[in-house]
Amino acid sequence: MTHKTLGTTLSTTMQTLAVRAISISMGFVFFTGGWRRFYNAPAKHDIESPAHLANKLVAAAPGSPIEGSVHWVLYNPWAAEWSTYMMSTAEIAVGACLMLGLLTRLAAVGSAIINICLMLIFGWMGYECLDEWTMAALGFAISVTIMLTGSGTCSIDSAMGRDWFARFFRPLPVQATLVVASVLMTVGFYSYYFGFFNFQKRTSTHQYSIVAEPVSGMNDRITLYVNAGGSSTAAYVREITFDLLNGEQVVQQPDEIQVLRSHFAPWSHSGKVVDGTLKLRLGSKTDIAIPEGAVGATVDIIDAKKDPVLSW
C-alpha cells in the first residue's frame, strides 16, 4: 500500500468515525431528553401536575408560527398527554438508534422531524438563551449529514453488513435537496424569528404585552392574553383602570379583580394574587369580570416601560 493510498484510507476512516461521533452525540441528547421524563422527572408526564411538559408549551405558544395548534393541544388535555408520551418515546427510540448505529438513516429522518418540531414550537425562544433555536438548527444539519452518510463503522448496521434505506438517499437530486433544505432551515427560520438584514426579534422577550380578547356570548368579561414578554418570569399587575362608555373610570386593585377562569390550568401558573399583584405569565389567558359599560382599560404592570392599553 502506497503512502497516498494509506493516507486516503485513513482520511476516509476518520471521516466515518467523525460521523459516528456526531451521530452518538445527537442520539445522546435525544435519548437523555426522553429518558429523564420517564425516570428522573415523571411529573413531566403527569397530565394533572403543574410540572407537565404543557407548562413549557404555555410560554412557547405566543411566538410560535403554529400558535393555534399549540393552543388546541393545551385546550385538550388528552392531546397534551399523549403527544408528550409520543415525543418522549420518539426521542428515546431515535436517540438509541443513532447511538447504536441501528437503522441509522431512518433514525436520522426521525431526528430531523423532531428538530423541525422544536424549531416551530420553541425556536423563537432561542433569542432568550440561544438553546432552543441553536439546538434545532444544528440538530437538523446533523440529521441531514447522517442521512447522506449512513452509520459508517462501529455500528450495528455495519456489523450486520446492511445499510438500511441507503437507496433512498443516493440519487444526486435527493442529496442536493437535503443540503439545500439544511441551509434553508437555518437561514429561513433565523430570518423569520429575528430578521436578517434588519435585525429584530419577532416576539418581544423584555416588554410584556397584554391584549384583550372578547369572550363569545359574554359581555361581562374579557380574556387577558399575555402575548409577549420573558418566559422565565411573569407580568405582575398592580392595578387595572377601566374606561367606561360614559367617560368615567373604575380602578381595581389586584384583590378586587374578579378572576373567572385561568386557561391552560394547572400549567399556566397565572390568575393568582402574589405579594399584592396579579400574576400573569407569558402565554397565559385569564378571564376577568369587567365593570358594566367598560370599553377599554389600562393595565399597570410593575417595571413596564409602557403600560398596555386594551380595547374591546
| Overall morphology | elongated
| Tally of helical runs | 9
**What series of H and E elements makes up the topology?**
HHHHHHHHHEEEEEEEEEE
Give the helix level as a range of percent. Answer: 40-55%
User: How much of the residues is beta strand, in percent?
Assistant: 15-25%
**Which structural class matches the secondary elements?**
alpha+beta
Mean pLDDT score: 90
Distance between the termini: 81 Å
Topology, number of strands = 10
Give the biggest sheet: 6 strands, antiparallel
Sequence stretches where pLDDT stays below 50 over 5 or more residues? none
Gyration radius over CA: 25 Å
Q: What key attributes describe this structure?
A:
single chain, 312 residues, six-stranded antiparallel β-sheet, 9 helices, elongated
Task: Please tell me about this protein's structure.
The chain is an alpha+beta fold. Helix content is 47%, strand content 20%. It has helices spanning 3-38, 54-60, 67-75, 77-100, 104-122, 126-129, 131-149, 156-160, 172-194, and strands at 209-215, 218-228, 234-244, 249-252, 259-262, 272-274, 277-281, 285-289, 294-301, 309-311. The strands form two sheets. Strands 3, 4, 6, 7, 9 and 10 form a six-stranded antiparallel beta sheet that branches. α3 packs across α4 (77-100) and α7 (131-149) runs antiparallel to α9. The longest helix has 36 residues, at 3-38. The model has no long low-confidence stretch (mean pLDDT 90).
SSE blueprint and pairings:
Blueprint: H1 3-38, H2 54-60, H3 67-75, H4 77-100, H5 104-122, H6 126-129, H7 131-149, H8 156-160, H9 172-194, E1 209-215, E2 218-228, E3 234-244, E4 249-252, E5 259-262, E6 272-274, E7 277-281, E8 285-289, E9 294-301, E10 309-311
Antiparallel strand pairs: 1-2, 2-8, 3-4, 3-7, 3-9, 5-8, 6-7, 9-10
